[in-house]
Each structure stands twice: as C-alpha cells, then as structure tokens.
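Re: your question from the hallway

Yes, I did run it. Sequences:
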Amino acid sequence: MKKLVYLFAFVLAGLISCEPDDICLAETPGTPSLIIVFYDNDQPESKKEVPNLQVKGLGLEAEFYSGTTDSIAIPLKINENSTDFLLSKTENDILFEESITFKHDSYDRFLSRACGYQKIFTNLRTERTNSIVWIESIEIVTDTISDINNTHVKILH
Amino acid sequence: MLKYYINFYFLLFCVSIWAQNEVKTDSLTTEIRYGIRLGIDMSKPLRMLLDPDYKGLELVSDYRLTRNLYIAAELGSETKKIDQDAVNFETSGTYLKLGVDYNVYDNWAGMDNLIVVGFRYGFSQHSQTLLGYNVLNNDHYWEEDDRLTIPSPNRFDGLNGHWIELQLGFKAELFRNFYMGVSLQMHRLLSDKDPENFENLFIPGFNKVLTDNPYGAGLNYTISYQLPIYKK
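Structure:
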C-alpha cells in the first residue's frame, strides 16, 4: 500500500513538473515570410541572380538585405494589410530602384499554448507605383502564404 | 531509581489487566455505519485566496454500498484565467465526476477511517474566452508589436471534456461522523470538444490540459459529514 502511494505521488509529481508545453521551441514555424524568386525575363524558366540586390522596407532605416542572389524571403507586416518594399539593384555602378507594394489579407492560426498564433496571409497581390525600372513583371505563384516551403512570387527581370 | 521503575511497570500491568476486564463487560460496537457523506473541497477556497485569477467550488459525496465499497461523486464549478506569454484566456464551467471508492484500510472495531482507491468518469461543460494572444513572428524587421489584445474577446461556448480518473486518498474520522480527507487524482482525457482555431487549455475538474499529453493531475482536501442512515 505504502509503495503504491509513493508510486502514485511520483507519477503525479512527474505529470505536474514536466511541462514542455510552456516552451515554444525555436524551430517552430511562425509567421511565414514571403518568398520571392528572381527569373530571367528572356528565359522565364531559369532563375537569374540580381547583382547587388538591396531590399529595404519603406520608411525604415535598416536595410533588410544586401547582396547578389536569385531568391529572398521578406517579412510582411503582421498588423497591416499592405507592406512596401524598395528593391534595387546596382549594375555597372548605376542604381536601379523599384518600389513594390504587397497587399494582403490575413488571419491568425492557432499553434499551441506556448507559441500562440501564426499569421497566414491570403489574397496576395502586388502594386507598383513606378514605371518599369528593372523588374519586367511580377507573377504571383500562390496568393496564400502559409509556409515557407514554396515560391510565392516570381519576379522576372 | 530502578526499583521505582519496576514498581511503576507493575502498576501499569495492573492497570492494563483492569482495563481489559472492563472491555469484556463493555458492549463495544462492531456495527458498521451506513450513510451518505456530504462534503466540500477546502482546497478550492484556499486556492482562491492565493490566486486572484481562480474561482472554484466542489461538493463531494459518497454513499456506502457494502463494507468497503462506496459510490462517489464530485460536482464542481471552476473559472480560471491564464495569462501567458502566448495566450491570454479564461475558462469557466461546471463538471461532474461519478464513480466508486474502494476502502483498502482495515479498521479496528468501531473506527471508520479510509484509505481510498477511487475510479471516476468525469465530464465538463464549459466555455473558453480568448482575450489576447501573441503572433509568433521570427522576424522583427518591421519592429511591430506581436502582442494582440482582442477588443471584443472571442467566447467559445458549448465546449466539453470527458475523462477517466484514478484517485488515491484517505479519509479520517476526526469526530463522530465528521471526516477530513485528502485525495490525489490522475486524469486521462478521453475526448474534448475544442474551440475553433483554439484548444481547450484548461478544463474545469480536469485542470490544465497539455498539448500532446492526455494526462492531468489534481487534488482535493475535503471536510465532510456523514448522515447516518442505518447500522449493520
């Protein structure tokens, strides 16, 4: 009987104390970023690097990205319905700057007690204020951004 | 000194003989009292004093069927507000647990104390109100606030939980028909109706619900009175 009480108390203590639920693991996928892949306008099936790409949120001082790449993942605003980015490239010492507005609706999806909710963006569309500077066209591959496993937007240049 | 002790023991010896003679003439009852025991869980008002985000009441009852077997029930109501980093919500509702208690303790004649192994089926009816939450955002480039307070909180009604429970505890008769008891409870959730796009994170009577673990734990500390019905 005494042993049973001890066993019960032990199991109970284990149940109460082990609560990994209260820790949100760092690898938990949260709000997904927008994945943009750059393609060649002349050969729309092949990726093409952007030389000296600079990405900056409109109204922010800090640059989000600077370098040469053929793809990028940028964060959309979680509390607003549109996000403005300045995308520029530098070729032969000449700066080409373009501004893109990403418009989106969104809803919050429950993750867990410890992690809360994640934002899912829906109905993604883009607007460009400038005439074509270096981006020929923007193609939305999927208008729902729920994970970061696939390309969401193709940019041809 | 030694002589004194020896004399003292002799004296005790005499006393014990005298006492045993007395027992033989006394009609000490070997009857067992049967009745309904009604009580209240004192741990809940105590928890209310310590935790301003908690309200609870639990009434307990059992009815003796045979020498060691009782049918038992707990009826309760709980409201708990939990404000964590990621979620801020309040759960409120009532629950009923039904089952049996088995006494494994052999009492001396006339005494009525219990070591109880109990089994219950429990269910709740509750609502959960989401007051605010965090949006998990790994990138803070836009320097936005991840914390969201819902202006008109989402209330999810008509939720429920079903579970089975193993209890282990004791009850001691402090005065005639007055009992004090403590029991530890281990629950296993069988099923629950979750709110849409949210989860039951607390179930009245069950306590905290873990995400990938159907087990839970609880305890009560009861003061109860037995309404004697008959003796056998």
